[in-house]
Design a protein that fits this description.
The protein is α+β, with helices and mostly antiparallel strands. The chain contains 6 helices and 13 strands.
Amino acid sequence: MSHFEETLKNPVWYSLSETHKNFVVNYNGVKFYDPKVCPFGAFVDAFTTEEALDAYAMACDSFFLVSETGVPTFNSNRVILDRKIEGCQMVLNSLIETVISETIVRLTTEHIDDIYDLVWLVMPGYYRKRTFEMGEYYGIFKDGKLVSVAGQRMQTDNFIEVSAVVTHPDYMRKGLAKQLVCYVTQQILKNNKKPILHTTKGNAAIPMYEKLGYSITRDMNWWFFHRK
């Protein structure tokens, strides 16, 4: 198995071991992002997660452990497993270009509040204002208002994840998200890295990703915990 294939099996853990190592909070091999950046963690050995979850819960009241097949151990007197979100990982085979008719803007620190408000309007729960530091973000504006966004989240030496693909409800079904995902994918390819993304199983956006050349490669589960 190549190193790239190995990183895909545990994307959060390898992101925190490579490109995003400056964001890592490490509890005996269980790696989490700084909770102000992203409430995600990952593990190699499920038997080490109990104490790590206890410790991280002191700094972050709700968070996710991301795993393909592993089942984390935890102390139900300290943390509560809210739910297991069944997701999947998609990897680009070859980009199928789409016409980009919209003006796509690279977002800056001046847009942090706008990105945060839009993501939380459409997909609340995981995005933090400092998530912006994880990669580049791009958006489409209408009448001076940010209405669609897509960016980059987890990163290793080999891949960059497309993430935060959201469009304001008033501007859906206009092809904005598809154009943004295509554009972000192009930027990742220019960096000589492999584009990947994660989504929930059955997500209505999956056919759009497939039309751009992405294919589902594996399950990727999100264990959502909160502090008791």
